[in-house]
Amino acid sequence: MRRLVLILFLAACSGDTRTIDLAFGAGTRSGLRCQDESGAFLIARAIDPGRILRFSVLVDFIDIGGVPMCRPGDIIDFCQTRDCAPLPDRACFDVEPRTIPLGANALEVVAEMLRTLDGQLVTGDAPQTPVIIRAVATAQSCAEVPGITALDPGELIGCAWSCPVQLDSIEGDVVLDLPALSDRCSTSVTLCATAGVFNP
Amino acid sequence: MRLLAPALALLLGACSGMVLLPLAQKPTSGEPALTPARPTRPALTVLLAPSLPRPAEARAAIERSLGKSFDLAFVEPPSRPARAPDTTAIEADLGAARKAYVAADFSPCLARTGELARVTDLLAQGERSLAERLLFWRIACRVGAGRAADARRDAELFAVLELDPPPDVEAAAPDVESLVAEAARGVSTSARHPLRVVATAEGATPQAVVSIDGRPRLCVAPCAVDLHAGDHAVRVEADGFEPEARVVRLEEPGGAVTFSLGRADPALAAEQWTARHASGAVDGAASVSLLATALRARTLAVVAGEPAPGGKRRLTGTLAVDGAIASRSERLAAGDAEAAAAAPALVRDLLLRGRLIDEAPPLHKRPVFWVTVGLAAAAAAALTAALLYEPPSTVEVTL
Question: Angle between the B174-189 and B148-160 helix axes, to the nearest 10 degrees?
């Protein structure tokens, strides 16, 4: 009887912590392969003259107040009557700079640099409301972007977002990507990073 | 889960109640729960009368039922016949005095008849016949010795005590018989006067039996007896008390005498009980009171049995506390076996009515019941809360 009470007590008092990993979509879907109108890769914005690639990744949550379909049009319609504003909690990671060797594929180097972020904690207590998770890659450092409004559209190198999710009721990974029809998707990156895609 | 949790909680609450409630209600083998009125085990002496069938079974049943609550002692009724006064010496003296009288040797005749106090002592002991003979031959010896005045005084006493001449009166000279007859005639013409006898014992008035001049049980004190003026031997006896005897001088127009009786010791009480109740109803009030003293039992329960119509058995019980009857009870049993089995219930009845035990209050009137219910409810509530409680679930997001 005493043992049963103890088990019940521990069961009642012990909390439950689940981990959800964020995964970036491959290729253009992470926006890192996007090119501007002149055909230049946005990632070139993060390479200095010494061929050093330096960028940061900013992850935040956009509270959309419901769970609409994942199609961009549906989300835009859904947010017509809602605030769909970013939550104050955000995480910013300065990715360790790397020199791009001569003849190397810069996109592969970016992919390697992103892998160094594996396991980094975005938040220990995710929002319990329906959110869209957004990751923005910028040539600016974390120190330069204390707020989402401080992002310089000219420094953006990629952006990806998730479908609307209720984080405390899902299992498994959440994939972030950037829906785009072609590699000329710098406008999509800008809209994604400045939240115009959700609340124009 | 939300529906299952309250059900489980209620089940646990009920189970805990079932576990705890028996602690609140001690098992009583189907009989009403009883709690001793005193914190320590009180002593209870039980006497099973010979009229009770299957006494061994009854004793075992009583021990099973009450042995845990009471310090039981089973006793047998006392058997202590009262010893008759030793009159051998007086008989010898009387024989010697009579022989001396016949031999006209009056000096030893006077010596052997002794002091007058011997006569009153014999009367006080109820030995009236012996007292008659002793006083008569004392008169004869005095007449023979020429002590006429002393003889006349004894003859007057003989008449006042209304003694009858002994069977061997013809062995004495005719003048002795004449003297006794003359004294009797003189006394018989005098008026009688009331002697009021009162007996007290420890502030109460016991049922004391009065014997006067060796005539037993004349009345029960307080009472008055008409007697001729003169000395009389008055004896007062009451069950449970020491008897007391005294020579009282009654004068005109009468008098009163008060006896203050002391409590009898167990040996005397045993003698009194053996003499008066051993062959009768053991469970009578007087018998039980006397038994309590004789057996040194502060609390005595006497259980007896008697045949009842239809082949049944009637069990009767009497409880005495400090010598006073505290309660009575009876039960009817179908037969001898049932009578033995019913003995514990009868004793319980006695103890309840005698307030030596309290009937346990109903379950809902016991504080421990509500404490138990409260604990069970608290346990059920706690379990419900535990089962319905959902700990805060945190989600961490990593890259």
Answer: 50
In this structure, the number of other CB atoms found within 10 A of the CB of residue A23 comes to 16
Q: Given B383, B386, B393, which is nearest A168 (Cβ)? A: B393
Of B385, B386, B395, the CB nearest to A126: B395
Contact B34, B69 (CB under 8 A): yes
Q: pLDDT tens digits for A128-174?
A: 899 999 999 999 999 887 665 668 889 999 989 899 999 888 888 89
Buried b (16+ CB within 10 A) or exposed e, B2-15: eeebeebbeebbee
Q: What is the tens place of the pLDDT at every residue in B57-97?
A: 999 999 999 998 899 999 998 888 887 778 888 999 999 99
Q: Residue B271: in which H helix or E strand, if any?
A: helix B266-276
Q: Do B396 and A118 touch (CB under 8 A)?
A: no
CA angle A174, B399, A200 (to 5 degrees): 60
d(CA A99, CA A96): 10
Closest approach of A15 to chain B, Cα-based (Å):
5
pTM here is: 0.54
CB atoms B391 and A120 under 8 Å? no
